[in-house]
């Protein structure tokens, strides 16, 4: 049942190749891998749309155009030459018989399921029925379930026909270069490593803000909400990388063991320490229930009960319709004692370490200085300027999946733990509080933090003259 260790796949089968994810992300990632000469296998698209191979190639080109990709015709022709297409209903066993006839039994395929989560288990079970999983890996997109019970059920059904090392759980935040860079920044720099614990850190803030609303995704979003959409997966995965101890080796399990330790040390969330918000006008969106209580904003307080972080409050917030599109991690360090050599004997403002994940990934060290008044000094690094243009998340993750590198995929035990952590908020959601678009959420989200440790305005990239 297990695949050939970490052997590279010799076929990529994409279920849902005519969908939104393929249009926005997958074709661009495949094109970039082709340009870097990292693709060396055929690609078979599977979907319910009746279209010719020529039409699929047209879709691929349009996806690249819409993404603003500068197309090299030689590269595109090589990519187009890899494509093939199979039409069928993924709930119909005939599709899998056709697939078996098309690819045979000697392949080492990577099946990438860009499909609704409810179809993950049925697709995999149909593949098993036709004997198509013996040497395969299967990649599935988050969400991995809808709550703790459904997450466990999905795991049980997948593991009935797949070994653990055949399953790749895709959370695209784990493919973002600044998230990957966290491990190096923390553990390769003694100046940071010595600050990264409860003795130095007074609080951790993580913000994931979007300035757009739900727009055309009402049917999807109203059944999910901010907690399931980004907190249970993206933000908790980032928190684990922020808080974990150094891995003991280079393997994927070495990394995931340390992340799992963080999740196991976190108590289940307290609904009393959570604020749920909904921007005004949300219920007027197409396919959103008029009496919907789905949150478009969530702010919460949690902790990690271990030796490194005990007593350090951790605040997470995420939402739509906010003033900026930005994701950042902010560590607020303890204040120094009052400075006796100043006339007013005041303590300085606390130093901060800020990692901006997007846009324009970078790191800031905020120090205090004193001229006529207190002044913040910012030591800033732009990763693009200092490290070069990063690999796009799906480019990184698709290549890792093809070569059998599990390093930057979620692991089943961690996913189950994150569902355990958020489950009380799903069972007993706090009442919805309303906020206007263009603000930072309900007033209660500001009030949940102590006055000396409030939310900070996110660190935004400087606008160029053309952006003013």
Automatic annotation (TrEMBL):
Coiled coil: none
Transmembrane segments: none
Keywords recorded for this protein, A-Z: Carbohydrate metabolism, Glucose metabolism, NADP, Oxidoreductase
GO molecular function, a single term: glucose-6-phosphate dehydrogenase activity
Single biological process term from Gene Ontology: pentose-phosphate shunt, oxidative branch
Acetylation listed as a keyword: no
PROSITE patterns, per the entry: G6P_DEHYDROGENASE (PS00069)
InterPro entries: G6P_DH, G6P_DH_AS, G6P_DH_C, G6P_DH_NAD-bd, NAD(P)-bd_dom_sf
Boundaries of every Glucose-6-phosphate dehydrogenase C-terminal domain copy: 184-452
EC code(s) of this entry: 1.1.1.49
Gene3D superfamilies: Dihydrodipicolinate Reductase, domain 2, NAD(P)-binding Rossmann-like Domain
Active-site residues from the entry: 234 (proton acceptor)
GO terms under cellular component: cytosol
Protein's pathway: Carbohydrate degradation; pentose phosphate pathway; D-ribulose 5-phosphate from D-glucose 6-phosphate (oxidative stage): step 1/3
Residues annotated as binding NADP(+): 89-90, 142
Residues that hold substrate according to the record: 172, 176, 210, 229, 320, 325
Pfam families from the UniProt entry: G6PD_C, G6PD_N
Residue ranges of every copy of the Glucose-6-phosphate dehydrogenase NAD-binding domain listed in the record: 13-179
General function of this protein: Catalyzes the oxidation of glucose 6-phosphate to 6-phosphogluconolactone.
UniProt-listed PANTHER family: GLUCOSE-6-PHOSPHATE 1-DEHYDROGENASE, GLUCOSE-6-PHOSPHATE 1-DEHYDROGENASE G6PD
Family statement drawn from the similarity comment of this UniProt entry: Belongs to the glucose-6-phosphate dehydrogenase family.
Record protein name field: Glucose-6-phosphate 1-dehydrogenase
